[in-house]
Every structure is written in C-alpha cells, then in structure tokens.
Design brief:
- The strands form two sheets. The protein has a six-stranded parallel β-sheet with strand order 3-2-1-6-7-8, sandwiched between helices. The protein has a two-stranded antiparallel ribbon with strand order 4-5.
- The protein starts with 7 loop residues before the first strand and ends with a helix.
- The protein has twelve helices and eight strands.
- Helix 2 packs antiparallel against helix 10.
- Strand 4 and strand 5 form a beta hairpin.
- The protein is of the alpha/beta class and about 280 residues long.
- Bound molecules: adenosine-5'-triphosphate, beta-nicotinamide ribose monophosphate and zinc ion (ZN).
- The site of adenosine-5'-triphosphate (ATP) has 20 residues, from strand 1, helix 1, strand 6, helix 5 and helix 9.
Length: about 280
C-alpha cells in the first residue's frame, strides 16, 4: 500500500520591489523550500513573486512593467517559482495582507472547482460529485487537510520593518502571523531572532515564524545593483544574464531613474499616518 503524504502543502509568496530582481531573491525561495521540507511537515508546491505596484512610491522604483518583465525572465528556468502581476496591476498600492488573502482565495477557488468539476457517470447521467452527502463529507475532510497554505516569504529586514511606526497596521501584522505565517531568511545587518524577542506581537506568534539561517551569506541587494549600474560597473552573475541583457536593452537604472518619487512619502506611511 502506498504511504499517505500528510505534509501540509505550502505556497510561498514573496512581495517586494524587485527593482531589479537579483539572484538572491531567487535564493530566498530555494532556502525556504529546503528548510520547510527538512521539517518533514510541509511540502512546498509553488513560489510566487509579486512585485509591488508603482503606487508604492518608493524612491528609485521603476515602472512595474519592467520589474515584472525582469522577474519573468529570471524565473524562466524554475519549475516551481512564478511571477504574479495581480498586485502590481491594481490602480493603487495595496497592503500585503490583501495580497496574501487574494492568493489564499485563489487556491481555495481552484480547490473547490477541481472537486466539483469531477463528474461521476451513473446510469448514463452525469452528476456533480458534490451532490451526494458522502461525497460532500469526503470533500470537506479532504479540503481541510489538503488546502494549501500561503505563507509570506521575506528577508530579515522586511520582518524588522514590521516594527516601524506607521508602516504596518497592527491588525495586518496579526492577521499575517495568525492566518498565514512568515518564512524569514536571515540577512546581514539584521538580527531577526532578537527582533522577535523584542516585539510583543511577534513573540506571541513566534510559532508562526520560520527563521531560516542563510549560511552562505550574500549581501546582494537591488540598491547595490542600481548603484553599480549608475557607476557603469558590471552586475554580471549578481542577476541572471537575461536580466542584465534586459537592463542594457532598455537602458534602465541611471541617475534620473534613481530620482523617481524623490521627496514623495512612501504610500503605506502616507496612508497610515493619515488614518492615525
Ligand atoms: N540578500 C538578501 N538576504 C535576505 N533577504 C533578502 C536579500 N535580498 C532581498 N531580500 C528580501 O527579498 C524581498 C524583496 O526585497 P527587495 O525587493 O526590497 O530587495 P532588496 O534587495 O532588499 O532591494 P532594495 O535594496 O531596493 O531594498 C524582501 O523580503 C527582502 O528582505
Ligand atoms: N502595511 C503593509 O502592508 C506594508 C507596509 C510596507 C511595505 N509593505 C510591502 O513590503 C514590501 C517591501 O518591499 P521593499 O523592501 O522593496 O520596500 C512591498 O511589497 C510592500 O508592499 C507592506
Ligand atoms: Zn529591500
């Protein structure tokens, strides 16, 4: 008899600027998947990169269409990481919790339609599988067991940003932790475990935070990539070749692009300080 697999299926969702995407962003997914698999409790079925929309108004943030195109090129050779344009195609910047909810809902819809589409042939008639009581019960049992869980994938600096005044709403942080959970990769310059210790909310939900140690430390950041480009220095092997080519072809990242949104308040800060 085949051994049943009772590991919880997980979808990893990374949000961020990806301005531009680097090999480190791709590494985050590999590190998180290895870690979760090693626990024996989780099976990672998909990774999603969700670039933030232009309405985020971060200094130096270039158009979402370019960031999206580069992320698509970078993930071309991955058989499990994909790029999703839903977040950045919204008219306005949206809170990360809404992006998590959207992807969780999408999985729920896919699960429900998968099972209701299964039709059984009985005496020559087609019958929706969910019509019988037994089938319905089976489905519920099955669904509560197999519904994949979306988890937020981030670096330690993003985890630490949860404590910045007016950047995140408390209720959002609570929902992200209690309903989804976070997989956080350590990053030079950040001390995630100390940050969890110092935050009452994070401490309360520490069982929902997976801290993943990156032993092969790597200080690549999009900021450093943009800086190198402004100075005419090579970024080869720090971002995939196809992304280097895209940046060259479209002449992205220069002094002018770095001044985009200069002097404009970051949208979450503007929104939360308006409402507080
Ligand atoms: N070297 C790294 N180690 C760990 N996490 C990282 C690293 N680089 C990026 N991340 C994570 O990737 C996600 C997306 O980050 P983001 O797009 O801001 O990249 P970044 O390299 O930090 O860019 P920037 O320098 O513009 O802030 C965030 O959760 C961030 O913490
Ligand atoms: N309140 C919130 O939901 C909130 C606040 C700040 C940043 N974020 C998100 O975190 C990510 C941060 O990206 P950067 O590190 O590139 O600035 C973005 O995806 C942004 O939308 C969410
Ligand atoms: Zn960053």
């Amino acid at each position: 008899m085949e051994k049943s697999d009772d590991r919880r299926e997980v979808v990893l969702l990374a949000t961020g600027s990806f301005n531009p995407i680097t090999v480190m962003h791709l590494r985050l997914f590999e590190l998180a998947r290895d870690y979760l698999h090693e626990t024996g409790k989780y099976k990672v079925i998909k990774g999603i990169i969700s670039p933030v929309g232009d309405g985020y108004k971060k200094k130096g943030l270039i158009e979402a269409s370019h960031r999206l195109a580069m992320a698509n090129l970078a993930t071309k050779n991955s058989n499990w990481i994909e790029v999703d344009s839903w977040e950045c195609s919204q008219k306005e910047w949206m809170e990360t919790v809404l992006v998590l909810r959207h992807h969780q809902q999408k999985l729920a819809n896919a699960n429900t339609s998968d099972s209701s589409e299964k039709v059984v042939h009985k005496k020559g008639h087609k019958r929706k599988r969910e019509n019988s009581y037994q089938d319905k019960t089976d489905r519920c049992l099955q669904e509560s067991k197999v519904m994949p869980q979306v988890k937020l994938l981030c670096g330690a600096d993003m985890l630490e940003s949860l404590g910045k005044p007016n950047l995140w709403k408390n209720e959002d942080v609570i929902e992200i932790l209690s309903s989804f959970g976070i997989v956080c990769i350590t990053r030079l310059g950040s001390n995630a475990s100390n940050f969890i210790y110092e935050s009452d909310i994070l401490w309360k939900y520490k069982h929902m935070i997976h801290l993943v140690e990156e032993w092969i430390t790597n200080d690549i950041s999009s900021t450093k990539i943009r800086r190198a480009l402004r100075r005419g220095m090579s970024i080869r092997y720090l971002v995939p070749d196809s992304v280097v080519e895209y940046i060259e072809n479209h002449e992205l990242y220069n002094e002018r692009s770095e001044e985009r949104n200069s002097g404009i308040i970051l949208e979450p800060l503007a929104r939360n300080s308006k409402n507080s």
